[in-house]
Amino acid sequence: MNAIAEALFVAEPFQAAGDIVIDCNVNNIFYGDFLAVRDSTVPIEKKKITGFIGPSGCGKSTVLRSLNRMNDLISAFRFEGSVMYHGQDIYAKKVDPVVVRRYIGMVFQQPNPFSMSIFDNVAFGLRLNRFKGDLEERVERALKRAALWKEVKDKLKNSGLSLSGGQQQRLCIARAIATEPDVLLMDEPCSALDPIATRQVEELMLELKQNYTVALVTHNMQQATRVADTTAFFSVDISRGGRTGYLVEMGPTRQIFEAPREQLTKEYISGEFS
Ligand SMILES: Nc1ncnc2c1ncn2[C@@H]1O[C@H](COP(=O)(O)OP(=O)(O)OP(=O)(O)O)[C@@H](O)[C@H]1O
Fold first, then answer.
1. Which ipTM value was assigned to this complex?
2. Which residues contact 214 (CB under 8 A, 6 or more apart)?
3. Is 38 a pocket residue for ligand 1 (Cβ < 6 Å)?
């Protein structure tokens, strides 16, 4: 770590090799008076999977949800910094967060299909956006991309809630990609799934990155090594009397796991793996 970074107790900036789709610069993120995350620069590279790892409460979900203004729905939330999406700050006054979420979609921890048919679940966002094209074709394409088509093509009128947990999560992924977003934010998408469904969703993520840019929060270190191209490791700073998350280091996943630069990363990774 260089002297300035060390003095400020912030990570050295990660120099991504490829195109950056979202350039996230957090100065501070507050919930009311509570400083949840500080000083974290997290570039999200095009058509790659960027994994966010770190101990509970280090702000992984907070940073992820800041990337499409999902946290705006929390009144006490305050973001200081910038999130540049293709060069446009999504926190600029004139930007409509609903439009941001049209391009930067989200998949949550718990599969949350709507109480409606499988078809209508996938068509939901398209109808909301007054899509004028061939709805059936788009629903089929989304279900195929979500690796669910073969399992549901003969029961599209059945309720989305009738599917298994793993199928429900793939349905939610189909719903998220039906409107053809550019980026998918995934907040522990496998934590409610069994190992077989988890592997299916992981394989799906690897396929999705051919068309989408993905940012993934995961508690599962092995999952990060299996799917993430780049990994951002966050920790909690208790040195100033609070519990504030910050980025410790970010780099190619292999380097983070096999040759971390920071002692904290080393300790976390070896603790998790040993
Ligand atoms: N809506 C909220 N209101 C107040 N504080 C919050 C809110 N959401 C999160 N926090 C706090 O912000 C900090 C970061 O939380 P966050 O959920 O982002 O961490 P995380 O690293 O994703 O944790 P976990 O791995 O346990 O899900 C925590 O101290 C948490 O208690």
1. 0.98
2. 48, 49, 50, 183, 184, 185, 186, 205, 208
3. no
Which residues in the chain belong to E strands, given as ranges? 20-31, 34-45, 49-53, 77-85, 88-89, 104-107, 183-187, 213-217, 230-237, 244-252
The residues with which 80 forms a beta bridge, in sequence order, are: 28
Give the separation between CA 52 and CA 247, rounded to whole angstroms. 10
The model's pTM: 0.91
- Determine if ligand 1 sits within 6 Å of the CB of residue 115: no
Domains of the chain: 17-108+183-273 (3.40.50.300)
Could you tell me if residue 229 is left (phi over 0), alpha (psi between -120 and 50 degrees) or otherwise beta? alpha
pLDDT in tens, 16-29: 777 999 999 999 99
Burial of 161 (0-12, 13-18, 19+ CB in 10 A): middle
Minimum-distance ligand 1 atom for the alpha carbon of 32: 4
Question: Using CA atoms, how far apart are residues 174 and 155, in angstroms rounded to an integer?
Answer: 15
Nearest CA to ligand 1 atom 31: 57
How does DSSP classify residue 117?
B
Question: In this structure, are strands 230-237 and 49-53 parallel, antiparallel, or unpaired?
Answer: parallel
Cβ–Cβ < 8 Å for 234, 11: no
Quick one: which of 54, 29, 26, 66 has its CA closest to 242? 29
pLDDT (tens digit, 9 = 90+) per residue, 105-135?
999 988 999 999 999 999 999 998 889 999 9
Residue in 127, 176, 118 with CA at minimum distance from that of residue 149: 118
